[in-house]
Amino acid sequence: MAALRTKNDLNQDFLHYFLLIQDHYWSRVSSGSTYKSITKTNLKNLKVPVPPPKEQEKTVEKLDKIREKVNNMWDGFKRRKEILEILPKAVLDKAFTGELVEA
């Protein structure tokens, strides 16, 4: 595990998002049989684009908003999944207790 320090002209959140989308690079350079790891050299060789600070801030703001929306959608999906798992049990319970039969 390593800590990454950024220079003054690189927003840490911008770097974080950039590193998250580098799957193709990480899969190409990572090594190890028990668990995959990357080296300090791998990190140094990665070319990180450094747009002007204002552009980095705008990009981070947009990605934060998108991430929030995705997280909200995921939370909604998990709640619906929980309901769908409980619902059949509740219906069967009512069926076997006679509550589903109309009078």
TrEMBL record:
One of its GO terms (biological process) is DNA restriction-modification system. Belongs to the type-I restriction system S methylase family. It comes from candidate division MSBL1 archaeon SCGC-AAA833K04. InterPro entries: Restrct_endonuc_typeI_TRD, Restrct_endonuc_typeI_TRD_sf, Type-I_RE_S_subunit. Keywords: DNA-binding, Restriction system. Transmembrane segments: none annotated. Residues 3-68 form the Type I restriction modification DNA specificity domain. This is Type I restriction modification DNA specificity domain-containing protein. PANTHER family: TYPE I RESTRICTION ENZYME ECOKI SPECIFICITY SUBUNIT, TYPE-1 RESTRICTION ENZYME ECOKI SPECIFICITY PROTEIN. The lineage of its organism: Archaea, Methanobacteriati, Methanobacteriota, candidate division MSBL1. Pfam families: Methylase_S.
